[in-house]
Amino acid sequence: MEEKYMFLALKEAQKAYEKREVPIGAVIVKDDKVIAKAHNLREIKKQATAHAEILAIEKACKKLDAWRLEDCDMYVTLEPCSMCAGAIMNARIRNVYIGTREPRSGAVGSKINLFEDGVYNHKVNYKFGMLENECKKIMKDFFKELRKK
């Protein structure tokens, strides 16, 4: 059941890929309904904060007319960075399903783990490896193609 949402996140990542953005997609679900989808738009928006997770959180907050997303789950193709992990905690997202790790800047265990440090008052549950091969492949393909140009 949960895989269908990660497939939607991968579709978002594909949209980013087609726009020559780093292919990361995020989907937020509440009560088994998708309430927000987004993909990276940093290059297009010329915004450092235009990560898929941040854009999805903004859309979900607008849809629910609230900043607390306590009963929501996020599906994201790549391990969140520290900015996105912080936003996820601040939005009070319940569960995060992560496609694959980001060894260079991942903030959910690869470099640091903001979800486990015990400093914050909100605990985010997380799980790695959903559609991991597909999530890794889109990133590898993107950077392979980028290096050719």
Write out key terms for the chains shown.
149 residues, alpha/beta, 40% helix
What's a concise summary of this model?
By secondary structure, the chain is α/β, with parallel strands linked by helices.
Describe this structure in words.
By secondary structure, this protein is of the alpha/beta class. Helices cover 40% and strands 20% of the residues. It has a five-stranded mixed β-sheet. Helix 1 packs parallel to helix 5.
Helix and strand topology:
Layout: H1 3-18, E1 25-30, E2 33-39, H2 42-45, H3 52-64, E3 72-78, H4 82-90, E4 95-100, E5 125-128, H5 132-148
Parallel strand pairs: 3-4, 4-5
Antiparallel strand pairs: 1-2, 1-3
Helix pairs in contact: 1-5
**What is the percentage of strand-forming residues?**
15-25%
Main β-sheet, spatial strand arrangement: 2-1-3-4-5
Number of DSSP strands?
A: 5
Total helix count?
A: 5
